[in-house]
């Protein structure tokens, strides 16, 4: 295995995790529309969602 192949694998690994970060960030924004704030249609889940957001932002 040469160095260029190793670099390619590392780049793919980084790109994959950046992509997953974009997915979860988008999901976070979408769900925040429904679960966050007083105008949210589902207020019972709001505290659970806030705990999840705190966990995600700590990383």
Explain the overall architecture.
It comes from Corynebacterium striatum. This is Porin. This protein has 59 residues and is mostly helical. It has one domain (3-58). The chain is 76% helix and 0% strand. It has helices at residues 3-35, 46-57. The longest helix has 33 residues, at 3-35. The chain is elongated.
Secondary structure topology:
Layout: H1 3-35, H2 46-57
How many domains? The number is 1
- Note the run of SSEs as H and E: HH
On the 0-100 scale, what is the average pLDDT? 76
Radius of gyration, in angstroms, nearest whole number? 17 Å
Number of helices: 2
Protein name: Porin
Organism: Corynebacterium striatum
Quick gist of this model?
The protein is built from 2 helices and no strands.
List keywords for this structure.
Porin; 59 residues; mainly alpha
């Amino acid at each position: 295995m040469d160095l260029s192949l190793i670099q390619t694998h590392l780049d793919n690994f980084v790109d994959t995790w950046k992509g997953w970060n974009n997915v979860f960030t988008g999901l976070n924004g979408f769900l925040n529309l429904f679960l966050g704030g007083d105008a949210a249609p589902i207020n019972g889940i709001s505290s659970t969602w806030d705990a999840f957001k705190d966990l995600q932002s700590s990383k």
